[in-house]
Design goal:
Strand order of the largest sheet: 6-5-10-13-14-3-15
Oligomer: single chain
Shape: globular
Radius of gyration: 25 Å
Structural class: alpha+beta
Largest sheet: 7 strands, mixed
Bound molecules: zinc ion
Length: 396
């Protein structure tokens, strides 16, 4: 083991510039993602596809790790980690940093006891312990991350224009949420809480879409990155942002969306016993002893999207009904069955309905519309802009 360079020269910490409460990546465009963030793990097996370097924080040592070996990582106690190579070398440290020879190309894979298969990642890995469990942070190029998320979110076999639209949403979301886990020492987690990320993107079609839209983001008329909300299927009409989240965004307006009509998640039904439906309504002080009120709640119709199931002064937000009864969307009609003991919800769409409908966007792409058309359709008065130009405009 020989001392090579100071930690400083190997530090790949991303610098953030603060503009109007938004963080922007530096020219290096690296992002830190906590991987396996929902699992409590104390041991992991690391495989290196390239000759990575191991940096020992306490002693400023940089050690070459050979590829084609595996390395067992374990939490020894609350703060100490041990890394043992397959040829018997042992390293102990509070923090272990594994650096790629080429951050955009080099790959490593990790196997944790819960999974049979390895997950493959590009870039660097920082390992520390948190409450006796491994905390694994993957540092990688933003576009590699975008590719990995699109891969995890929508999978293979989609139209290139749809992939481009999805890549813009993922990149815009990532850049507007870089602060989300900053106090915990990383930008984003790999779960639905942020964006689902399972490592390297294996689809060349997605990689092509990501590079074709390199640096492009979606901004509103004030040049702020938009809240890039999306869902599976709008049911034929998207939803105003304030109707779901209480916050009005000028670019998240309800639009009539015929592209989603007839797509796989367009229709759903759910049956609930009439008694359970009445018991549910009682929680909102709904007058379930009033025949007219009962008739309304068992024959509720939405010709266009409504926000409430409302009878006189009683207003029940449809988003509450969706969450509490685990319905696929808020866009439903209700009818009584023939024996009058069950209510049947006939629904349209899947998801919250705000922003882009993925199934609608897929149909638009197949119909020959471009990713720009798709984005302009689902988000009103937005612009697609190069990140670097955006920084220039902001500085003006
Ligand atoms: Zn998160």
């Amino acid at each position: 083991m020989k001392k090579i360079k100071k930690y400083k020269s190997f530090s790949l910490v991303v610098c953030f510039l603060l503009f109007n409460n938004l963080f922007f990546l530096s020219a290096q465009e690296l992002i830190n993602v906590r991987i396996f963030s929902s699992f409590k793990i104390v041991t992991a097996k690391l495989f290196l596809q390239d000759d990575y370097s191991l940096f020992i924080d306490e002693t400023n040592e940089l050690i070459k790790l050979n590829k084609n070996q595996f390395y067992q990582i374990e939490v020894v106690n609350d703060s100490l980690l041990e890394l043992v190579s397959s040829d018997g070398k042992k390293f102990k440290s509070q923090k272990i940093m594994i650096y790629a020879p080429d951050i955009g190309q080099s790959e490593f894979s990790l196997q944790i006891p819960k999974f049979k298969n390895n997950r493959v990642f590009k870039g660097n890995l920082t390992i520390s312990s948190e409450n006796g469990n491994l905390k694994l942070i993957n540092t990688l190029d933003l576009d590699d991350y975008v590719c990995g998320v699109v891969n995890a979110e929508v999978g293979k076999g989609r139209h290139p224009e749809f992939y481009k639209a999805q890549a813009l949403l993922v990149r815009t979301y990532a850049l507007s949420h870089l602060y989300k886990h900053l106090p915990e020492g990383f930008n984003l987690c790999d779960q639905v809480h942020c964006q689902v990320y399972y490592g390297t993107c294996i689809s060349s079609a997605i990689a092509d879409a990501v590079s074709a839209t390199h640096n492009q983001v979606i901004v509103d008329s004030n040049l702020n990155l938009i809240v890039a909300a999306f869902h599976s299927n709008s049911g034929g009409q998207t939803v105003n942002s304030e109707d779901i989240w209480g916050t009005k965004k000028d670019y998240l307006r309800s639009v009539k969306d015929t592209f989603s009509v007839g797509m796989p998640s367009y229709r759903w039904t759910k049956k609930i016993a009439l008694k359970d439906w009445m018991d549910y309504l009682k929680k909102y002080k709904y007058p379930t002893d009033d025949n007219e009120a009962i008739a309304y709640a068992t024959q509720f119709k939405q010709y266009t999207r409504q926000v409430y199931l409302q009878y006189n002064s009683i207003k029940i937000p449809l988003k509450n009904i969706r969450d509490e009864l685990k319905l696929m969307s808020t866009f439903f009609d209700i009818e009584l069955n023939e024996t009058k003991d069950t209510v049947v919800f006939h629904g349209r769409g899947f998801g919250h309905g705000v922003g882009l409908s993925q199934e609608g966007a897929m149909r638009m792409a197949k119909a020959g519309l471009s990713y720009k058309d798709i984005i302009q359709f689902y988000y009103q008065n937005v612009m697609l802009i190069d990140l670097k130009k955006l920084n220039f405009f902001r500085e003006e």
